[in-house]
Design goal:
- By secondary structure, this protein is an alpha+beta fold.
- The protein has two domains: 4-93, Serine-tRNA synthetase, tRNA binding domain (Helix Hairpins); 109-414, BirA Bifunctional Protein, domain 2 (2-Layer Sandwich).
- The protein has helices spanning 4-9, 11-20, 27-56, 62-93, 131-137, 143-150, 160-178, 193-199, 224-228, 286-304, 350-355, 382-390, and strands at 113-118, 141-142, 156-157, 183-185, 190-192, 211-212, 217-219, 235-237, 243-252, 271-281, 308-312, 324-332, 337-346, 358-360, 367-369, 371-379, 398-399, 413-414.
Length: 417
Amino acid sequence: MLDIKFIRENQDKVKKAIKDKGLKFDVEKLIGLDADRRKLLMEAEVLKAEKNKVSKDGKPSPEVIGKMKPLSQKIGDLDKKVEEIDQKIGILMLDIPNIPHNSVPVGSPDANKMVREWGERPKFDFKPKNHIELGEKLDILDFPRSSKISGAGFCLFKGLGAKLERALINFMLDLHTKEHGYKEIFPPFLVNRVSMTATGQLPRLEQDMYRLKDDDLFLIPTAEVPVTNIHRDEVLDEAILPIYYTAYTACFRREAGSYGKDTKGLMRVHQFDKVELVKFVKPDASYDELESLLKNAEEVLKRLKLSYRVMALSTGDISFSASKCYDLEAWAPGIEKNLEVSSCSNFTDFQARRANIKYRQKGKKKLDYIHTLNGSGIAMARTVIAIIENFQQKDGSILIPEALRPYMDGSERITKE
């Protein structure tokens, strides 16, 4: 959420941000309501001052009391009108996106810029298969049975496929907690509406979320939601900053807007596993923290020896809440595509304002909003696609990346059991 004072004083900047993100919002309507609110507040303050003056003059006469009744009624009416406008402004404010950083490329997703590449793509002396063919042949992925159980857009991992998934989760959690300084969290997978609103998923993206109607709870689309809300409505002490959290969760997305996109196999599923990285930092450090967050996510791909590229997302491709975002895309030779396996974002104070997360600086009375960041560190199922397709062998087996072998009882390859 943006500050109303900032919006009032930077209307052109806010309008540009809305346009650049490909969204629509009536800024003039909000400014008009804000002006009405301030006018009503001034009227109420004048009347309240007049009422207070009478009260200070000692015990008022019956005649004065009679005159004060209409005044009190008018003050009450003004306060009620201000409250009604506050509610309207509060609802509208939830639909204004964060301001993109000036380094973000302006334009549609076609304006995304490659920052760097790492690793070499594998070369095969045979035609590489895709993960669906390999997974079904090795009996580690079962899409027909997952469809029978849950419907389209889900996957059943079996045997060494399930073990590979678990190995990836444990490897990433160990890396981030032991080497990158993150504290492990295991949060709830169901959250309330307030939590979803605080991180920016609601109200705009409600159609893409799974909701339990009887309880008004949502299955989390990412661990970002429960982990960021750990400190909702809290004041953090400067001495404990920065705070780094990492969490494994299953993630659930309806993929309501996926019509026409590639949804085969593990490409775009409704449920997937992810290890998330979340940071709470001081404002002057947040963009440096974004770069280090990105490197933490990159290290996962480097340890797995997967070729990838870093993309700086354009204004038309970054999320509603983000001010700047990088994507990590791993190469998948079987389907010949670069697959997004991580997004690393700086939200500045946008989420903190919605979640009311502040911090206290030493020697200062005024509280300031914290800056929040998050990134996938990293996400399956596309990472599984990359591993299966990059490390496939001519005989149909799959070499297990060395970094994962300690988590798979020392096994070197996946073969049909």
